[in-house]
Fold:
Amino acid sequence: MKKYIEDNKARFFDELFSLLRIPSISARKEHRPDMYRCAERLTELLLEAGADEAAVYETTGNPVVFGRKAVKDAVGTVLVYGHYDVQPPEPLEKWRTDPFEPVIAADPATGEEAIYARGANDDKGQLFMHLKAFEYLLRSGQLRHNVKFIFEGEEEIGSPSLPAWVEEHKDLLAADVILVSDTTMISEKVPSINCGMRGLAYLEVKVTGPDKDLHSGHYGGAVANPIQVLAEMIASLIDADGRVTVPGFYDKVVELSAEDRASLARAPFDLEEYKRFLNIGEVRGEKGYTTMERTGIRPCLDVCGIWGGYTGEGAKTVLPSTAHAKISMRLVPNQSSEEITTLFEEHIKRIAPPTVKVDVKRCEGGNGFLIPITSKAFQAASRAMGEVYGIEPVPSRGGGSIAILADMQRILGIDPLLMGFGLERDTIHSPNESYLLRQLFAGMESIALFYKYY
Structure:
């Protein structure tokens, strides 16, 4: 496939850039027209690549793109999943380029060429690899599988509309495996394949004290300050050993055997390099586990945002009426997002002092999942990536969440295979998101070889 990439490189960039220029931000209602623009553009690219059919389907939320190609005497069916929605680009002042005007530029640290844009990696760039690998296999007469594509526009907000759509169209989506590229490899030196991902429970907590903002001189010291109360409550959610204090939080967490932990530890990890990359003095987390284990096989709780009171320029002597926080809990397989959300809500209300009221808003969530590394699909992916990278990939556990994959696994009765090519240096969800050209092309080659060995 190397020659095909080289011969069509300019066209590939034009097509990918046409997707990256569309600000398909699912978190903001004003971008709903952009969701349709992006879905329609993906439909065009599917048909141009050789799909028999491709169309935009309505959901109760953002549209879904579905396409397929039937092959005579097919040896199986692969369902390719991806998402075309992206995270908001803020803070804009920290971008070196326009987030929705993609450019190819040298990485400031290494000099390697990369595409800089929101969605360059997550997930438009990785999704695009599948379109081009499919196109190559079809045009070179090497496609032996039926291929179906499902691209959604709500992954970044928890895929609220997709489970119902998948349930309604499960016959249309019938396949042998769900092939996904929306994850990050452990190391630039050694490739990896995710054999599982964590789930998510995401909530917003509101603490209310007095029914209005008060003069901090007249009332300070006599009335509870909701910001201080919220800070104290949050501080109590993690103990000195880095464990979440919500009762029942760990009840269904399965402890990995020493053998399984040793297998995952095969992945190369340099703690000093990790700290340098993040510009931190030291790591922290649950006692008794390594950094890699804390982000893969263990659950956690984090505050993703906190606000209240006056934050503008200058002083305003105010005791605020309310304080707010957004809290994320990453969950491991066997933990139920619904159950953990309920446990958290009960606990945060129970520990609130009588001086305030607490409200909890459920935002998004989903369960984690695992897949067997002995499966035919995993072995085919391992062989393909080993051939491209010259070294056998190691199994890993993803610390992030793709909530819909657990639902698709349950509804369709098939396992997802997470064959991702992102790297930590790509800074997804942050300013200056990028995707190395060598990873983009290696992904195309690896995906094409997956079909050969599957």
Remarks:
- The mean pLDDT is 95.
